[in-house]
From TrEMBL:
Residues in MoaB/Mog domain copies: 177-320
Function: Catalyzes the insertion of molybdate into adenylated molybdopterin with the concomitant release of AMP.
Reactions catalysed according to its record: adenylyl-molybdopterin + molybdate = Mo-molybdopterin + AMP + H(+)
Stated name of the protein: Molybdopterin molybdenumtransferase
SMART domains per the UniProt record, alphabetical: MoCF_biosynth
Named cofactor requirement(s): Mg(2+)
Entry's family note: Belongs to the MoeA family.
CDD domains cross-referenced by the UniProt entry: MoeA (cd00887)
Organism, scientific name: Actinoplanes cyaneus
EC number: 2.10.1.1
Annotated keywords: Magnesium, Metal-binding, Molybdenum, Molybdenum cofactor biosynthesis, Transferase
Signal peptide: none
Length: 408
């Protein structure tokens, strides 16, 4: 295993290393029906299968006219029909919004800006700008609408449907499993007698789904023995691309994760990150039977630290495995109050955003073992090493993972 555990990797570098590890292991494509595409990633460019619009389309309810008025009505055009051409000057057809404009029409007149006399002749004045959409106005035949790597959301699905697609070619969704370590954990009831309630087993799967994974299994608590750890990890690796573990990332008497990784011939992508809270975390590559690596992410046992490890290492890894771009530069917000640094480590400070999403206020209850602050936060203010943030400073902000398909 190739990492110096005594030299923590910088937080921003760790994110990039995790992403690049996932990107290198990204492989394969699959086709899914449009309704199943939300939250997936395009594996190839999405191109228009027809011009958009495919034909001249009325933007109004009114009249399609030819020549000078008044105009004699010779028919009606509704959406979904193909009208005959207008061949005679002084004629018009009634036309509905979304209907195909007949060949030979010179202009459209809105129904509310027209009159019909006693003889049934239509009069009105067309507006200066045409009242219809021209073929190819939105897209031309074969035009690339979205590049490979685009996250699919409902709007992308709608565009795909509009231009004639029934399926999307996407990257396989990364599969993730969760192993909860710790003999001290309870899975039900109230804590007591030296045992605490497991809070990571119920919540981490949802964070994984919000980060783009499908969760294959949640197992635990796993007994604090090397054999139990190895058995659980090997079983989870059979059906997952990423196995997340909670706890056991140190070198204490019941911390068996590092020995397990040695036994599995894994190599570290990242071993220890200079970030607080969140120490210690790790990400390792494990050889897969098909030649493609699998990954193990070691999350600390303290709940807030575990979530920080997840957003720091697992979310970028999953983005890489899904073939989507990674946003290394974070949006800037204004700090509402001073926020201390953590010396040579990056400080991820839980904060809530104002309704406009521009000002971040640190929340309370932010100890590494606490979750109340996390529940009241939108994400983390990133305080870089050696920096002390003053009120009013512009600071990077790392949002918590969004729901699938939700825009940043």
């Amino acid at each position: 295993m190739s990492a110096d555990e005594n030299t923590p990797v910088g937080w921003e570098q760790a994110r990039e290393l995790a992403y690049q590890a996932g990107r290198a292991a990204c492989a394969g494509t699959e086709q899914v029906p449009l309704p199943d595409g939300d939250g997936r990633t395009l594996a190839e460019p999405l191109r228009a299968r027809t011009a958009l619009p495919a034909f001249p389309t009325s933007s109004i309810d009114g009249w399609a006219v030819r020549g000078d008025g008044p105009w004699r009505r010779v028919g009606q055009v509704l959406a979904g029909g193909t009208p005959p051409p207008l061949t005679g000057d002084g004629t018009c057809v009634e036309i509905a919004t979304g209907a195909m404009v007949p060949e030979g029409a010179a202009a459209l007149i809105r129904v509310e800006e027209s009159t019909i006399d006693a003889e049934g002749l239509v009069t009105g004045v067309p507006r200066p700008n045409p009242e219809w959409r021209l073929p190819g106005e939105e897209a031309t035949l074969g035009e690339e609408l979205f590049p490979a790597g685009t996250p699919v959301d409902p709007a992308v699905i709608g565009v795909a449907a509009t231009c004639g697609h029934e399926f999307l070619t996407v990257r396989p969704q990364p599969r993730a499993a969760l192993l909860v370590f710790g003999d001290e954990l309870l899975t039900e009831g109230s804590p007591g007698g030296g045992r605490v309630r497991d809070s990571l087993g119920p919540q981490v799967p949802s964070w994984l789904r919000r980060s783009g994974a499908t969760v294959t299994s949640v197992i635990g608590p796993v007994k604090d023995t090397l054999d139990a750890h190895l058995d659980a990890i090997r079983t989870a690796l059979e059906t997952s691309d990423v196995v997340c573990t909670t706890g056991g990332t140190m070198h204490g008497p019941v911390d068996h994760l590092h020995p397990s990784l040695t036994e599995l011939r894994a190599d570290y992508v990242v071993n220890t990150v200079g970030v607080r809270p969140g120490f210690p975390m790790l990400l390792a590559r494990v050889p897969g039977p098909d030649g493609r690596p699998r990954f193990l992410a070691g999350l600390p046992g303290n709940p807030q630290s575990a979530v920080i490890a997840l957003v720091s290492l697992v979310a970028p890894l999953l983005a890489g495995l899904a073939g989507r771009p990674f946003r290394a530069d974070l949006p800037l917000v204004e700090a509402a109050t001073p926020i201390p640094g953590r010396g040579r480590d990056t400080h991820l400070a839980l904060a809530a955003l104002d309704p406009a999403g521009r000002v971040a206020t640190p929340v309370g209850h932010v100890g590494s073992a606490m979750l109340r602050g996390l529940a009241n936060a939108h994400g983390f203010v990133v305080v870089r090493p050696g920096v002390k943030v003053a009120a009013g400073d512009a600071v990077p902000f790392l949002p918590l993972p969004l729901l699938p398909g939700e825009r940043t």
